[in-house]
Amino acid sequence: MKVIVLSALKTSTGNCSSAQRISNYLLEEGIESQLTDQDAFISPLEFNRHVVQTAADCVLAIHAYRSGKLLLECPVPYSIVFGGTDVNEHHKIHDKLVTMTMAVSKARFLVSFSKPMHDQALALWPDIGDKLYTLPQGVVTSPSSRFDFHQHLHVACGIPKHSSVFLLVAGLRPVKDPLYLVNKFSEWHMEHGNVYLVIIGPELDQQLSEKVKAIVKRLPGVEVLDPLSQSDCHRAMQECTAVVNSSLSEGMPAAILEAMDLCVPVIARNIPGNRTLITHRQTGLLYDTPEEFINLAEDLLTSPGQHAAITRQAKEFVDAHHSPQSERTTYVSLVKRMASEPG
After folding, report:
1. Are 82 and 112 in contact (CB under 8 A)?
2. Strand order from edge to edge, sheet including 195-200
3. Does the pTM exceed 0.90?
4. CATH class of the structural domain 149-321
5. Angle CA(330)–CA(333)–CA(334) in degrees, nearest 5?
6. What would the pLDDT profile of 17-42 be if each residue is shown by its tens digit?
7. CA 312, CA 274: separation in Å to the nearest integer?
8. Domain Glycosyl transferase family spans what residues (predicted)?
9. How far apart are alpha carbons 55 and 49 in whole angstroms?
10. In the CATH hierarchy, which top-level class contains the domain 2-138+323-340?
């Protein structure tokens, strides 16, 4: 059996992380899995030629729009894993909704990560219930034993080695809202010089990336750095004070799951996708405004007991609800069923 796992493969993105994890599950089961970058194709026809040339039995695609637009005439069975921005954002644009509707209608199976994603997908496409699965993402972390994050920060931007670093891991694109906290955080840094906000992630929107760099350049206490490898990023999480999320919407944010698995506290924006993982003051901290973020960050710095309780409960939560073994079993089963059905 041969499966194409189709996704955006831009490093340091959630969809890429999911695609790599799922592909590894299939390979471990003896299923030939080809990770394929959706950006390598300019049309469905070109992708179809690739499917035929590789003799693939089926396609497992991530993101109903970005991958879905290549699947409209796919010659083999395919299934779609919703990415987050597809059901949360892209449906607001008519042409993208039309494309996703066609792709979703022909999919053999559909996978959402959480109940909010499941409910939103059903609201958009009420007739998909019999092929829609809710499967929480598994979490796998692999922190580097050689990477020194504080040394990296000191060399890259002069941050003193014993600073309290709040780490925002996110691609620079509008939905991640990377500038949401920067002004208020810089004010906090000017009062307490040992706190820093570090933004790490790929430039996924050129216009926004340039804006972020220009604004951050004049804000003391805020830095933007190039993305790290996954293992170095996991090590950076371990060495930071807290992992930060400032997104306008999320599917199931990988960075939050990874931080929770690594026993690092998370301070996340109070949005539905984040609330699927975080119960306030139990498995993490949720904020509604930049001012509230600063208050919660200050509390975290001065309350070791809160830090210990949150990280313990977060680790227990991911162990119980985000098992890679469960995720692996389900994807392998879906792929085998899909490949065994007639085209």
Report:
1. yes
2. 222-225, 195-200, 164-169, 242-245, 266-269, 285-287
3. no
4. alpha beta
5. 85
6. 889 999 999 999 999 999 999 999 99
7. 18
8. 158-316
9. 10
10. alpha beta
